[in-house]
Structure formats: structure tokens, C-alpha cells
Amino acid sequence: MPDLSIPQNDAPFLSWASGFLKTIRKRPSAFGVSQADVDAIEQVVGEYRDALRLTEDEGTRTKVTVMAKNNAKVSAMQLMRLYVSVIQPNKGVSDEDKVALGLHIRSRGLTRREVPPSSPLLKYIGSTPGSHTLAYADSATPASSRKPYGAAGLQVFMSIGDEPAYNANDARYVGEFTRSPFGVLHEPVNARKVVSYFARWIGHRKDVGPWSLPVHAVVPWPGGAEGESEAQASEDGELRLAA
Description:
It is built from four helices and nine strands, in the order H-H-H-H-E-E-E-E-E-E-E-E-E. It folds into two domains: 10-110, no CATH class; 120-241, Sandwich (Immunoglobulin-like). Strand 8 (231-233) and strand 9 form a beta hairpin. 29% of the residues lie in helices and 24% in strands.
């Protein structure tokens, strides 16, 4: 794909290359190049200028001079593309200097990945004594276990008490997860208490998305009374008793 900065037609390319040379010749170090680099650019631009001039005069325009012009243009364009590919992404060169060279400034918005506006879907998978296993999906793609585009991970929070909780702002941070399913371990002090889980996506820039609906589950623990029922979470986040 041709670089957006470099014109493809003969006269516009010469004008652009001449301006590039004039600017970079004044302050080579500002663009991270040496005097030898400037000399190389000056040589190919000069050779192309001379070759193009011969094709513009009817008295010297022949198949041979046109071919020579085309070859000189290819050589000049290849070298210019090399320097553009080095200077354009160089963060040490200011946008103002890049514009002065005639370079196209790439929009930073094209590569920015923001956290998705959708909320996660939490799902209770099961329990072992002192732990819960949960899985996640995205509300926009509930059949997929992949994180949505823009999400670096899933932040999980929880509230613990005798009753289910529904306010995520009162929950405490558990951790960040990047794979589904995932487990959450509990201390003995949480035995047979109700845990309400909340989650939200976190982006690569540490921005966060909206909260999920809560999922509730009781922490199972060895030593309960015989016949004591274990509470499990249904997919809609409501408590239900396992038979």
C-alpha cells in the first residue's frame, strides 16, 4: 500500500521530495538522520529532477529518457519511503516537524481501544468447600466466552452478608481475571454466608465499563448440620436451593 504522504505522479512527487530535502537538510538531527543520509536523499532527488527535465522537453523526450526517468523515480521513491517509514512513527519527532517534511500525521484515534460499552454476564458454575467457580461472557455476545474488543480483563467485586446485595458500589474488590471460568477462594469467616458478585470490563487504558447484574451464592463449608441445604445461584442471579 503506498504511503499517504508520498504523491505518485511525476511533478507532484518532485515537488514533495524537494520540500522534504530542503526541510531535512536544515536540521538533520531533529529527524534522527545523519549528514550522510541527507547526501543520499539529495543525490536521488537530483537525479530524478534531471531525468524528469529531459522528458519534459520535446527535443529530448525519447523512449530512452522516459525509461531513465522512470528508473530514477523508482530509486528516489524507494529511498524516500525508507526514511518516511523511520521518521513517521518516531515519537521523538514532533508533529510540527513531520508536517514540515510533508508527512501525513496518523490519527491516534484509529488505534485507541476503549473499554466496550456493554456489561459482562456473570454465571455461577459450581462450588467446592470454601470456593466458587464463575464464568463470564459479554452481554452483546452471550454465547461466547471471549472478552469483547477493547476489554483487557474483568474486574470482579463482591459483597458478603446474610442476605443478597444489589449495590455494586458497596462491594469490595476481588481481582482482575482474563480467563473464563475462574475461581474465588474464601476464608473460613465467610462460611455459609451469601456472596454477591459484581463485575465490569476494564480497558487497556484502565477505563472501566458498566456493572453487571449481581450473581449470588452461599459459601459451602465442611461441618454443616446434617441435611443443611446448599444455596446455588441461578443464571439470572437469584438464589435457589439445591435438592
